[in-house]
Amino acid sequence: MVYSDYSSNGFNIVQIPLEREIMRESDPSVTYENPLAKKIAQQEMKIIPQVTDSFHYSSKKYSKVGHLFNFHSWAPFRIDTENEEVRPGVSLLSQNLLSTAVTQLGYDYSSVNKTGKWFVKFDYSGLYPVLGFSLDYGNEKSHYYKITQYRNQFGQITRIDTTSIGFNYQELNINGNIKIPLDLTHGKYLRFVQPEFQIGYTNYKLAPNAPSSLLHGNFIPFTYRLYANNYLALGTRDLQPTFGQAIDIIYRNTPFGDFQYGSIFSSEGTIYLPGFSNHHGIRVYGGYQVKNSAKQSFSDLIEYPRGYQNIINDNLLTLRSDYVLPLFYPDWSLGELSYIKRISLRMFYDHGRAEVPLNNGSRFLYSFNSTGAELMINCHFFRFIIPSTIGVRGSYLLENRNKIFEFVYSMNFNGFRTFK
Question: Is it the case that residue 306 has pLDDT exceeding 80?
Answer without folding.
Answer: yes
